[in-house]
Every structure is written in C-alpha cells, then in structure tokens.
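subagent[fold] <- orchestrator: predict structure for attached chain, return tokens only, no commentary.
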Amino acid sequence: NLVPYIYPYRVTLDKINLITPPYTDNPLENKNTFHISLTDHFDNHMPFYTDGSKQIDGSVGMSFVNPQNEIFRYFKLTQYHSSYSAELLAILKTIEFILSKQIQSN
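subagent[fold] -> orchestrator:
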C-alpha cells in the first residue's frame, strides 16, 4: 500500500498565526501555556507526537504516538542513522501513516 508522494511546492497550507505567550522561568507554566495555545488554535485536530534518538550503544529508533486514539508505533533503525535522521524519519512515518489511514481532524 503505497503512500502518494506530494511535491512540497504543490502543497498549500492555511496561514497559521500562532502568537507565542511570553517565556517564564517556570518550565511547567511554559508547558501549560503552550498547551493552552495549541488547543485554542487547533482544537478540532488530532495531535501526533514524534521522537527519534540514538543511544550511546549505537542503537537508533524512532516512534510516533497519538494517545487519544491509542496509536503507538516504534521502528528500529540501523546504527548508521543519526539522531537527526531518526527525528526526520519519525515525522515522515507519521505523515505516511496519517495519509494511508486517511485520518481526518476531529
């Protein structure tokens, strides 16, 4: 099941005007304020979280998750991948998953 390739220059995105709240010295307050800002602007959307990392022993992995719908995917990569490529591949795999399942906003 192939995911159609979308040329970046053919994609039009709605303009997003995210006004970031002022930064404070309290990380928890920053996290809560950012979360409120996201829900204010994207209340009807389904969040996906991605991560990619490389461990000291050379193992590399990536994952994405959507906790609302209990979607969890983990992929093991070769030791030749960097943490940066793992991060980018996690984003790519998330987009491919969303397109293949035709996931729509809530």
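orchestrator: received. Logging for downstream: The CA atoms of residues 12 and 60 lie 33 Å apart. DSSP finds two helices and three strands in the chain.
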